Amino acid sequence: MAEFPKFKYHPEPIGTKAFKKADEPRVCQCCGKKTEYVYEAPFFSAENVEVLCPYCIADGSAAEKFDGEFQDAASCDKVDDPAKTEELTKRTPGYIGWQQEYWLAHCGDYCAFVGYVGMEELEKMGLADKTEDIYRKDAAFFDLDTIREGLYNGGSLQGYLFRCLLCGKYQLYADCD
Questions:
Q1: 0.85 exceeded by the pTM?
Q2: What torsion do the CA atoms of 104, 110, 112, 118 make, to the nearest 10 degrees?
């Protein structure tokens, strides 16, 4: 198997479970080749696509063939460069959210999706005391006390952690079931 593709805006897609290692290789509906890793996160297309390999996502062929997107462009912070939005929506694996996934940006570019978090994970990363600074209330709409008291990884109030590719600042988005 070729080296797993690199994704600028989703650097650890196996760790975040955007891809799952199949028990047996499956056939990608885009390229027709067998793949060990199958995409598990959202793909917005009129067609019912169940098996995509990471290579067809990385090169944009899956989005082109099925006229689809991995992230809804309307559910992203705005950036001025359309090429960045195209890379995010057409060539970057998404993540699984409770309601509508939202992709954060900072310093004029989309952030990298780090993973799913609750306050416990933020504490382990040394970010719990920085919640007021990293939480994007403008995007998520929950008050800070609700986040501090109710944010649990895998719980009803889920956190999604991003990191700016330019300055390295963490950004936190949250939604609920």
A1: yes
A2: -10
| Measured distance CA(8)–CA(11) in Å, rounded | 6
- Residue-wise pLDDT tens digits, 3-30: 899 999 999 999 999 999 999 999 999 9
Distance CA 170, CA 128 (A): 11
Cα separation, 158 vs 167, whole angstroms: 25
Q: pLDDT tens digits for 56-91?
A: 999 999 999 999 999 999 999 999 999 999 999 999
CA gap 99, 149 in Å, rounded: 20
- Going from N- to C-terminal start, the domains of the chain cover 1-72, 97-176
CB 63 within 8 A of CB 49: no
Contacts of 99 (CB under 8 A, 6+ apart): 175, 176, 177
Written as one string, the DSSP assignment of 37-69 is EEE-S--B-SS------HHHHHTSHHHHHTT-B
